[in-house]
Amino acid sequence: MINLVTSLINFKKNPLSKREKDILRLVEKGLTTKKVAGQLFLSEGTVRNYMSTILDKLHAANRITAIQIAKKHDWI
């Protein structure tokens, strides 16, 4: 129970780094992994790793859900 309460309290703070927010904003605009990588001068693998981390942090099953959660909390 304590872990759940702690988790909920921490979830109210923005768990995303600046780079993760940048990536999520570009994904929200409809950019592919390849285009996000090109715009941010990253490899596609790095973008996929960031997206995996974002999904884990937001407990989201997919990109759309991650965007919805981030927008709901005004994180992006």
TrEMBL record:
Q: In this protein, which residues make up the domain named HTH luxR-type?
A: 9-74
GO terms for biological process, alphabetical:
regulation of DNA-templated transcription
Task: Please give the InterPro entries that the UniProt record associates with this protein.
Answer: Sig_transdc_resp-reg_C-effctor (IPR016032), Tscrpt_reg_LuxR_C (IPR000792), WalR-like (IPR039420), WH-like_DNA-bd_sf (IPR036388)
Q: Name one GO molecular function term.
A: DNA binding
Q: Where are the transmembrane segments?
A: none
Q: Which UniProt keywords apply?
A: DNA-binding, Transcription, Transcription regulation
Respond yes or no to whether keyword Transcription is given for this record: yes
**SMART domains noted in UniProt:** HTH_LUXR
How is this protein named in the record? HTH luxR-type domain-containing protein
Source organism per UniProt: Oenococcus oeni (Leuconostoc oenos)
